[in-house]
Design a protein that fits this description.
Blueprint (H helix, E strand, L loop, with lengths): L3 E7 L9 H15 L7 E5 L2 E5 L6 H9 L4 E11 L2 H12 L6 E8 L8 H16 L2 E2 L6 E8 L2 E10 L11 E5 L5 H10 L4 E8 L7 H13 L5 E8 L1 H10 L5 H19 L5 E2 L12 H8 L6 E2 L7 H11 L2 H4 L21 H11 L5 H7 L1 E6 L3
Parallel strand pairs: 5-6, 5-7, 9-10, 9-12, 10-11, 12-13
Antiparallel strand pairs: 1-3, 1-4, 2-3, 4-8, 7-8, 11-14
Helix pairs in contact: 3-4, 5-10, 7-8, 8-9
Bound molecules: adenosine-5'-triphosphate and magnesium ion.
């Protein structure tokens, strides 16, 4: 019988009290969706761990690639299951390490099953001593070449050394829905990823100025969402033609306020769509001080008219930190492709850097953009995006 499995430790789910099994259920569903094309026999939840049983060890790299992307996963090990006695554990350890090249090692045991007569420290010492005797290798607790993991769970020992490190956080789908305002820039994909990492089911709204700008921004956004669907397997993209509203703004409002009014329109339309979709929060990639439109006064002026909470996970991050995440999640290369964004395309040379709220509110009363929004909502198109398509 195949005794190969993957043992997963989840992250913050372990802090959850009564509804832990609800979180585990979402987590397991997300794992199944990620592993849909890889072999395994079943998935079991046991003692705050998830076991993927009956895997094919040769596909290690593919399992790693898929599991890394499951939000909520802290780490995972490819393990062999053995009987729970010292001889069986020693012989499994030796068969796993005999062809590996290493000079120093350590053994790290976790004993969930307290019925086993040896403590974790006993097991470390017994197994460590037998490796030293058989291979004359040295122990290094702080910086070993090889860390042998042994977990003793429910009457069995699980042994392995290959570690998969995840992003942690919470399983997607446990954190309600949010609507993310996505451009094809660097920031908004990172902001969306960070909230997906908190378990939020993220859907997207993108504003474009076609035909005044090319459809490149829409294509870039779709490519970014394909990339993000590695983490959240399915999402909807709502595309909004903003040009008619922008023309009204450019005709009636002084150019230094254009960007703020473009943003205002984006916020209000996003809020209306979110209401229709029963979504309770927006997400943006705004970042304090990064560009003229993102001073605190301007963020206030732009979002003043909406009541829905706006989540801004990048507000206090440095550009370098954001770029590092974008590179890691695979969106950076797409975001730096040239595109004409609906805002920057029309941006004047000297945008207002600290908008006066009362002035903006007066202009807003005069232009009454909200009268056009109902029509615009009718023109929004929805596209489902999934890694499987
Ligand atoms: P990004 O890299 O995300 O485009 P940015 O630093 O370029 O951000 P801005 O262009 O000022 O900043 O946009 C601020 C935020 O407004 C973006 O992070 C995004 O959430 C939203 N946004 C900007 N342009 C669009 C757009 N065309 N469609 C939807 N949302 C947008
Ligand atoms: Mg931008």
């Amino acid at each position: 019988m195949n005794n190969q499995c993957i043992l997963i430790h989840y992250h913050e789910i372990s802090l959850k009290g009564d509804n832990r099994s609800w979180f585990e259920k979402h987590f397991v569903e997300n794992i199944k969706a990620q592993l849909h094309s890889l072999p395994y026999k079943k998935i079991k939840v046991l003692a705050a761990r998830i076991f993927i049983i009956g895997i094919d060890r040769d596909c290690y790299e593919e399992y790693e690639k898929c599991l890394k992307n499951v939000m909520g996963l802290k780490n995972a090990y490819v393990m062999s299951r053995s009987d729970l006695n010292v001889d069986a554990i020693n012989s499994e350890v030796q068969s796993q390490i005999k062809d590996l090249s290493f000079s120093t090692f350590r053994v790290s045991t976790k004993r969930q099953d307290k019925n086993f007569q040896y403590t974790s420290q006993d097991v470390n010492q017994i197994v460590g001593a037998s490796i030293v005797a058989a291979y004359s290798k040295k122990v290094s607790l702080d910086n070993p070449d090889l860390n042998i993991i042994i977990e003793i769970v429910n009457g069995k020992a699980y042994i392995g050394y290959r570690k998969i490190i995840g992003y942690g956080g919470l399983p997607i789908g446990t954190g309600e829905k949010a609507l993310s305002l996505i451009s094809s820039g660097i920031d908004s994909p990172v902001a969306s990823f960070l909230l997906a990492k908190r378990g939020v089911d993220v859907h997207y709204i993108h504003f474009h100025s076609v035909p005044s700008t090319s459809i490149q921004s829409i294509n870039n956004v779709k490519a970014i969402l394909m990339q993000l669907s590695k983490y959240q397997i399915q999402c909807s993209l709502y595309s909004v033609p903003l040009l008619s509203i922008q023309e009204k703004i450019m005709k009636n409002i002084s150019s230094k306020y254009w960007v703020i009014f473009f943003r205002k329109a984006m916020y209000s339309i996003s809020e209306l769509l979110a209401k229709q979709l029963n979504i309770n929060a927006l997400i943006t990639g705004e970042n304090v001080g990064q560009v003229a439109s993102q001073t605190i006064s301007n963020i206030r002026a732009a979002s003043d008219a909406v009541n829905i909470p706006v989540l801004r996970p990048l507000a206090g991050m440095n550009k370098e930190e954001i770029v590092n995440i974008a590179e890691d999640i695979g969106t950076y290369e797409i975001s730096i492709k040239p595109y004409e964004d609906c805002c920057s395309f029309f941006v004047p040379k000297h945008p207002a850097t600290s908008a006066n709220l009362a002035d903006v509110q007066n202009m807003e009363k005069a232009i009454r953009l909200e009268q056009y929004y109902e029509d615009l909502l009718e023109q929004i198109t929805e596209e489902r995006i999934s890694i499987y398509e």
